[in-house]
Model the fold of this input.
Amino acid sequence: MGQLLLRGMLAGLMASLLAFGFAKIIGEPQVERAIALEEQGHSHTHSHSGAAEAQAEHSHDGNAEAADEPELVSREVQAGAGLLVGVAVYGTALGGLFALAYAFISGRLLHLPPRSTALVLAAIGFLVLYFVPYLKYPANPPAVGQGETIGYRTQLYFAMLVFSLMALAIAVSFGRQAFEKLGGWNASILGAGVYLVLVAIAAYALPAINEVPEKYPADLLWNFRIAALGTQAILWAAIGLLFGWLVVGSRERFAR
Amino acid sequence: MSQSAIISGTSAAPIPLKEILPWAVFAGLLFILAMYFVGIEEGAMSIFNSMYVHEFVHDGRHLLGFPCH
Done:
């Protein structure tokens, strides 16, 4: 079991390097743009004339620190080492949790060969723990979202996440009960249907959050959210594949 | 299983629950704590009060989809 856990963490670490590469190349330009926009908004209430915009542009490539808040961590560190460490810690922990979940379900809920089990688990994990909560409360770039509501927004996000997990648990128990009568394929479809209905109800019942400022650039929001979705998709997909690669023996690993 | 199947082979025997449980409790807690520091610390909740953790992992927090300012 300790071996399995280490493999999960290793898979998570390697996967997070890939996810970091994507976040750095695709995500960071959006974060930069969002922060530039934020500072522009701070220093000028009216920034529609060309001169004001040029002035704002000038102020934050020079010394943004002097503007409002003193910076504890420079933008370069946030976008480099900070992003790497953040994603790597998250990815390694996720890989470890993945290994624990794998140990629980392998041979119990999923009767598949190891690599298939890992990939199916990664797909379900991505959908249930990230994609479904994301559909209700999508990732936002800096400056979208008010500081005062962070506690409320965090509670709602995790409420959606917990509902999604509970829906999965209920769906699995439905699927297992139907397994005898309907067979694996139909029981799985029934389980998926139960899950979808339950999360749809949860998403409908939970309050909506929309703190996107008026006239916020739609392309920036879209690009940021796609980058955030891609980062997590790469992380989960790579964990599923790398973990599978690590758990099978080396002979099986390269078998045709 | 037919020869042309992409996925074939058998599943491994399940690992006994007694063996998994202690690992799940201790390692699981540790992993969740690690994720907490990346995702929430000095945002919605705080253990330390420097804002340093928040600022350091700021970009990762946004790009991993956690609610942030």
